[in-house]
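Q: Can someone sanity-check these two? First one:
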Amino acid sequence: MKLKIKKGATVQVITGSDKGKKGSVMAVDVKNMKIQVQGVKVQTHYDKKDGLLKKEGFIDYSNVKLVEAATKEKKTSKKATKSKSA
């Protein structure tokens, strides 16, 4: 299934304990329909080497709404750059 929310987009959480929080999408799991949002569902893990680590968890795709789509940089072809400089 194709998802409208892509990596780099800004989303807002609409349900759950983090309701109202905004953040950018860090990762998208299309198979399980889950996304990872910066600053949302922060989980703490203990590691012997590094101590306490904070990491964002995945939340369901249906629990967020798109605020701003990810911007895609337009690629310019070699022909277009040559014609502009001439």
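And here is the second, same format, sequence then tokens:
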Amino acid sequence: MFDFLADILGSILAFFYEFLTPAFSQGWGFGLSIIFLTITINILVFPLTLKQTRSTRAFAAIQPKIKKIQAEYKDEPQEMQQRLMALQKEAGATPGGCLLPMLVQMPIWFALFTLLRDPDRFIHADTALGASLQDDIPAKFLGMFLDVSPSMAIADGLMVALPYLLLMATMVVTQYVQQWHSTYGQERPKDQPGAGTTQAITKIMPLFIGVISYQFPAGLGLYWATSNLFRLGQQVLIFRIDGRPTTPSSADEDEDTKSSNGDEPKQSKPQQGAADKRRRRRRK
């Protein structure tokens, strides 16, 4: 499976490299080809990103109902879980939706690792990128050989490995920033089916990816960091169009409860004062 994907990725990289090399050096052409590949893939998975964002918004909107179910069925955990799952399904909200774009891209990530580990196998020699690989000309992008891992670079000294280590840090930080931005202003769900597991995976996954990238070629780190930044930009755009998902306040929740019970909201004091003044004027 990874070989098949690696062959496709190799063709896409060679396509971008063909257009970039006249204006850039070989190293920059290769690095920018990976960036353009990343952007292309993220555009293709944009429907999943949009679905994730809308699922997050729906999940935030049903928080008052979730709290009500938790309070009513706190002594019946099985019934509570069934009702919560039914509510989430009806609202189109899934706690694990935020992980979907990341999980979809994991096979692509491993395919890119397969490609960078043995590029001559997947990039045809009759392409400009294949020819440069055949010549084996050293070419750097941002001070890094993209087919070299941080663990290999550290053997040549800390200063040589510094760009690789900074790229690892960028991967982790941008992933956490992207997650924080997607949930900012929302109340973290508790005591819900799978909520604890989802939150744990969400917290650990960026760090896990950063750690394992120490053994992987720098091109993978470039792909992942670019993907994080592009998804962050997508989120900003979606939130500007549809609005940011927020958890309804307790005041909104009380108002909804009163409305559902048929209770009229109490008239505020300023409004009552104005009504009294009008009545006094009529008497005169």
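A (reply): Looked at the second one. Residues 95 and 194 are 7 Å apart (CA to CA). The chain has a mean pLDDT of 77.
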